[in-house]
Design brief:
Length: 572
Amino acid sequence: MIGAPVIQRELLSFSRRPRTYAFQTLFLGVLTVGLITWWPPVGVSSADVADRARSIFEYGGYLQLLLLAMLAPAFTASAITEEKRGNTLDLLLLTGTGPVAIVLGKYISRLGILLFLLFLTLPLNFALLSLGGISAGTLLKEVALLCSLAVLATALGVFLSTLATRPAGALLLCYTALGALLAAPYLLKSLGLLQGAVLTSSGVPIEPTVSPLWDMHYVFHPSRHVATESEPTYWWVFPTVSVAASVGLVLFAALLLPRARAINSRLSARRLLEALDFVLGYLFALKPRYRALLARARGQDPGEAIAKHVAKKEARPIGRGNPIYWKEVTVNTVARMKHWWRLNLILIVLMFGSYSVFRRLPPLSPGETNLLSDPMLHKLLVAVLGGLLVLLITVMAATTVSREREDGTLILLATTPMECGTYVAGKTLGILRNVSFLALVPFLHVVIFTAMGLLTPWSLVFLALSIPSALVAATLQGLLVSLMFRTTLKAIVAGIALIVFQFFLPAVCCLPQCNLPATCYYVIEGPGGFGGTATAAITLAIGFGLCVQVVYSFVLYSLIRGGFDQYIGRAG
């Protein structure tokens, strides 16, 4: 069999890793808790039991779909990147194994682990099947959809791992691609490429064929996509396309594998940012001339003024300031000022460009003239921005220490008399500064539409009380995760798992402040949305949530301080 040695090696490696069993426990634990919570009580009618079983089966399918989309990148992001990092990829190629055998072995071994996760859920599915309300055909269709997503997500992860230099890069790219795949109908509608439940000329519904999430919905509610169907006829389209795309991705990855290092150097983020610097630097080439004109107007020597500016820009804070903060905002490629303001410029263009797209779309709520005048749009947008902020800042914080450990610079830090407070303050302030403009985007959005009379000013006040404290807490928890876990990939996965856990907290503790997207959603209202009682209640909830975030941040800092020397390798 092609790739059999690689498959054996990978399976043995995964079987010895504790995270393999941790993922299996997490996957089954979430499903079991949901099943116990929704299980029909004793004494209800058989019709109610059947309806409850169908609901559990449907929402359990959605949950398995999302869990697969979250776990698949964690299993596949390091498929090829770990060989590059360990300098074993060239040795594998020299052994005569061949790129096809290497890629196929990596793909089959990781796909087998994901399919084994789905196999573990069969007893739960058979338990639901015994309650009635679900046909065996529906069960097989759901399993086929989940398996097809596992096939596609594994192939995508292996392919991106071939292109990326680090596991973190492959992981983020894979999450982005799978998120776009799940939200494909919304993205197509926002671009004007999909209008309603448009059918192709052959009668195939488009929405289920471009997104596994909508295909799952099509299996349970076919008449909502095709009014004349009581059973889904074209549910097989997406699984078929997924398998075909998976084969293409695996073969393409095998073709690129011998040239992986050359591709990595050409597609690195540093090169892309340098190209952006070149283009924008060419467009703004008159900037030094303006500085010279300003110096002449002040009666100064233009050359001396420019030299002072360059010397001030390149000054190093030796003996003053926080060196960790300087490193975060200067040495970090993305955080350098020449890249930082250009990335912010791109964000501004994207923000205002999205308004022109939303203006042409129909509103979400009845009675509104267009989508931009609909408060529901602003609630969703600010909630999405809040979620992106928490995700981005957690990933950045989770990679900052683990990357230093992998690069060997953390060992040098351990030999210095660096105190925990200086280190944590520098990292926290540096990360917050790097995302400061993105953190201002929700405020800018609310300010613009408050000035237009579409949102209440109280939304701005509530955001000011919610977002900063949540970002500080997210940074500290990302730092703690990065200190505790040895590799960048493990730190990112652990940070994302922590975010997911916090995402479900409001469902059990009624405190939306544990979930910044939920907070942003509830505090955005139209001009007359908040009454006196509602304003007082939300103010109390936001104030209590602020106290919770402050206490949580203090607890996180205490945990970091308690094991700081051990985390950085300076203890004993």
